[in-house]
Design brief:
By secondary structure, the protein is an alpha/beta fold. A five-stranded mixed beta sheet has the order 3-4-5-6-7, sandwiched between helices.
C-alpha cells in the first residue's frame, strides 16, 4: 500500500526518501536507501509510517531525531493510535490515515484524523496528499477511523464479493465469464458514475427511476431485498468489521 500511495503522492512538489532494505527500486523520482544510517544526518518534514504495526515500537523511535522542528508523523499502519505514534516520535504531531485498495489506481477513499498537535498545517498537508489518491475524508476521532476501516478500508472486499456473486449468477444464465464480467462490471461502473454526478438524485430515487411497477427490475429487487435481507446483512457486515478493528487497536 505504501508504494501504491507513493506513486500518487509524488504528483506534488515534495521529495521522498524510502528506507527499505528489501526493496529493489522505488518509484521514479524517489530516493531509495537501505538503512536509516544512510540518512542519519538528515531531517525531514514528515516521517511516513508504512510498516507492519508489530514493527513500529522497534523501528519508529530511531527516526524521532530525524523529524524537523515543525514536522509531523503520518501513519497508514492499522491499529496504531495517535498517542502511541506521538510518544514513539518524541511528542511529535501525529496524523493517522486509513486508505483503501483503490488508492492504487487513484480512486481510493481515505479517512484521516489528527491529534491536537496535528491539527492545522499537518492535517491540511496530509489531506492534500491523500487527495492525490482519490477522496480524502477528515474525521474528528480515532473511533471514526475504525468506522472508516469498516466502511471504506474493508469496503473493496465487500464490493468484489458482491460483484463475484453477480458474475457467477450471470454465468449461470448462459454467459461466458468474459461476457458476464463485462455486463456486471460495466453496469456497476455506470450506475456508480450516475450516482456520483453533481446534483444527482438520492440513491433511493435513482433506484426508483429504473423500476417500473410490475416490471423486470421490480421483480428482481423484490427477490434481492424485498424482505430486507441485504439491508440487514450490510449492517451486520459493517458492525463485524468495526468490532474487529476495535479489537486490533
Amino acid at each position: 500500500m505504501g508504494g501504491a500511495l507513493l506513486s500518487h503522492w509524488m504528483q506534488g512538489n515534495e521529495q521522498f526518501t524510502v528506507v527499505d532494505p528489501a526493496l529493489e527500486s522505488a518509484p521514479k523520482g524517489a530516493r531509495l536507501v537501505r538503512d536509516r544510517s544512510d540518512i542519519a544526518s538528515e531531517t525531514f518534514d514528515v516521517v511516513i509510517v508504512a510498516i507492519k504495526p508489530q514493527m513500529i515500537d522497534d523501528i519508529l523511535p530511531d527516526y524521532a531525531s530525524m523529524l524537523s522542528e515543525n514536522g509531523y508523523v503520518l501513519s497508514i499502519a492499522a491499529g496504531c493510535s495517535l498517542s502511541r505514534l506521538s510518544r514513539l516520535m518524541g511528542g511529535a504531531p501525529a496524523v493517522r490515515v486509513m486508505p483503501n485498495l483503490p488508492a492504487a489506481v487513484g480512486k481510493g477513499v481515505s479517512g484521516l484524523c489528527a491529534d491536537d498537535k496535528g491539527q492545522g498545517p499537518a492535517l491540511a498537508h496530509a489531506e492534500a496528499m491523500m487527495g492525490r489518491t482519490g477522496t480524502a475524508v477528515v474525521v474528528d476521532s480515532e473511533d471514526k477511523i475504525d468506522r472508516v476501516t469498516a466502511v471504506a478500508g474493508s469496503g473493496p472486499g465487500y464490493v468484489f464479493e458482491i460483484a463475484r456473486a453477480y458474475v457467477a449468477a450471470a454465468m449461470e444464465m448462459g454467459f461466458d465469464e468474459d461476457e458476464a464480467r463485462a455486463l456486471v462490471l460495466g453496469t456497476i461502473e455506470g450506475a456508480t458514475a450516475m450516482a456520483l454526478e453533481p446534483g444527482a438524485a438520492g440513491l433511493e430515487d435513482l433506484r426508483n427511476s429504473v423500476t417500473s411497477k410490475g416490471g423486470t427490475t421490480a421483480a428482481g429487487l423484490d427477490a434481492l431485498n424485498g424482505d430486507g435481507t441485504i439491508s440487514r446483512k450490510m449492517r451486520e457486515t459493517l458492525e463485524a468489521a468495526y468490532n474487529r478493528a476495535v479489537e486490533l487497536r
